Amino acid sequence: MSVTLYHHPFSRAAGSVWALEEVGIDYELRWVDMMAGAQKAPEIVALNPMGKLPLLTDGDQVVTEVAAIALYLADRYAYGTLAPRVDDPARATYLRWSFFAPSVIEPGSTAKMYNWEARPGQVGWGTYETMLTAMESAIADRAFILGDTFSMADVVFGGTLRYMLRFNMVEKRPAFAAYVARLDARPALQRADARNAAIAKEHGLGG
Ligand SMILES: N[C@@H](CCC(=O)N[C@@H](CS)C(=O)NCC(=O)O)C(=O)O
């Protein structure tokens, strides 16, 4: 089986590199010139009808959606370590905050940035303030989502938060900054950042 990530360093695929580095398997990065629209090429759309990155293949299996890719890799290659087993009660918290990232934080921060008008009871992110309070509750009194144990939920939730802080899409609360500093200390994240930066440089892209 061989694992290939269709990648551009300025896309969410950069976060999938972190997930790959955490599980520690061999993988190939396939350059997709997203700025030139290469993600809409027929061979990519055949695998992902959205024509978007990231896209991961593992042998004949295709996985899209940055959160699904991370959870897939953890279940497949780091089950019981980066992914709590199905009979481990920690699996509840693990899934809860992993899903919170794409279903609440991503749309909620985008809504805030673009001043979208929405009824809090009708949209999944409720209000920006409640979203931030909920996020803080996930990490405020512990090192990682599961407590002292780092898991792939931190790659999903923490990776989203890290991105949102970098682009000023969420308020810089002290608990967020402290949590992201703990994530920044992960060797796998440092390797992923270096690999993404090297690929950007190789293709003449600024940081
Ligand atoms: N829901 C997808 C979002 C994927 C997405 O929007 N990717 C962007 C890059 S971060 C993309 O491919 N944009 C180029 C395009 O839509 O043509 C995920 O979570 O992976």
Features:
207 residues, Glutaredoxin, Glutathione S-transferase Yfyf (Class Pi), Chain A, domain 2, 2 domains, 8 helices, 4 strands, 51% helix, binds glutathione
What does this structure look like?
By secondary structure, this protein is α+β, with helices and mostly antiparallel strands. It folds into two domains: 3-80 and 189-202, Glutaredoxin, CATH 3.40.30.10; 90-186, Glutathione S-transferase Yfyf (Class Pi), Chain A, domain 2, CATH 1.20.1050. The protein has eight helices and four strands; from the N terminus they run E-H-E-H-E-E-H-H-H-H-H-H. The protein has helices at residues 13-23, 42-45, 66-77, 90-113, 128-139, 152-166, 174-184, 187-202; strands spanning 3-7, 28-31, 55-58, 61-64. A hairpin with a 2-residue loop joins strand 3 and strand 4 (61-64). The protein is globular, with a radius of gyration of 17 Å. The chain binds glutathione. Glutathione (GSH) binds next to loops.
| Separation, N- and C-terminal Cα atoms | 33 Å
* Cα-based radius of gyration, to the nearest Å: 17 Å
CATH architecture of the largest domain: Up-down Bundle
Small-molecule components bound: glutathione
- Look up the CATH topology of the largest domain: Glutathione S-transferase Yfyf (Class Pi), Chain A, domain 2
What fraction of residues sit in β-strands?
Answer: 5-15%
Question: How many structural domains?
Answer: 2
Number of helices: 8
Shape: globular
DSSP summary, beta strand count = 4
What share of the residues lie within helices? 40-55%
**What's the CATH class of the largest domain, please?**
Mainly Alpha
Oligomer: single chain
